[in-house]
UniProtKB/TrEMBL annotation:
It holds the Pfam family DUF2232. This is DUF2232 domain-containing protein. It comes from the Bacteria. The lineage of its organism: Bacteria, Pseudomonadati, Pseudomonadota, Alphaproteobacteria, Hyphomicrobiales. It comes from Bradyrhizobium cytisi. Keywords: Membrane, Transmembrane, Transmembrane helix.
Amino acid sequence: MMVFGLIALIAGAASALMFASIVSGALISLVLVYLAPLPLMLAAIAWGPLCGALGGIVATLVIAGALSPPLALGYGFAFALPAWWLGHLAMLGRPVTLGRPASGTAGSDAASVQVEWYPLGRILLWIAALATLLTAGSLYSLGSDASAISDAMRRGFAKILSMVSETTVTESDPRVGLMVAVIPVLVAASQMATLTLNLWLAAKVAAVSGRLHRPWPDLSSTSLPPMTLVALCVALAFSFFSGMTGILAVVVTTVVMMAYALVGLAVLHTITRDLANRGIWLASAYAILFMFSVSLILLTALGLADAVFGFRERFLRNRQPPPLPTT
């Protein structure tokens, strides 16, 4: 129990220190802030959700004492709570026997009992939901309606552009308008990517250290529930509305499309299995992805096409050997 509490204390202190590094103004602090949920996710995955929750409480208290209670409250909702919940979902499983939950009766065969882990596609949907909530929270922190949020962003971006260009930039400048229109999309995509990356890193560190108490999942088989495509179409339709309805619909559309982009990566890993130089092809694809963010559109299209036409299912079916003759 003492070791358990010490691990929670260390995870919380590490996360708080990474988050508080932003006050230094150093460029590396941006990376540390993005990785602040990592220690808590690792604690939740490797030592259980209770350890991750205790670590989040410790980190919140440290930030409240070192910086300010409002900042600690924001950290708790934006970093500690998502880290704990995603770590809990990653290790959530139930025993099943012959496709049904284990009854626990004496007649059940213990050798046939397996663990059904929480589906990766649903974890991806939870990440999208959390990214939506965090983006909406950051927008509402600027104002209570669309006009107030837009005015606050225009003032802020005009001030930033004036400092960078050393000339006076007005709020009516086209560059300011472009940034106001794009920033909800960028924030939502950033939240989605940050949560996904932190969860993958935490699981990978736990697996390497031998603390991952589940088999490593087949990431290339990740797929979203069928109703996700319907939700995307509805959000895309509402994104043409004005006011907060349109802004929030744009945020939902962005995170769901990011989810399908990640599914597109899974499709890419599946359909390149038979290539001779698979490593080179995948490395080139990731390099293009990091250098040209517009390539996310192609990945999203690939993920959507797989959801509609079932590319991976057809590919895996064609790779199966022909049935043996019966005579």
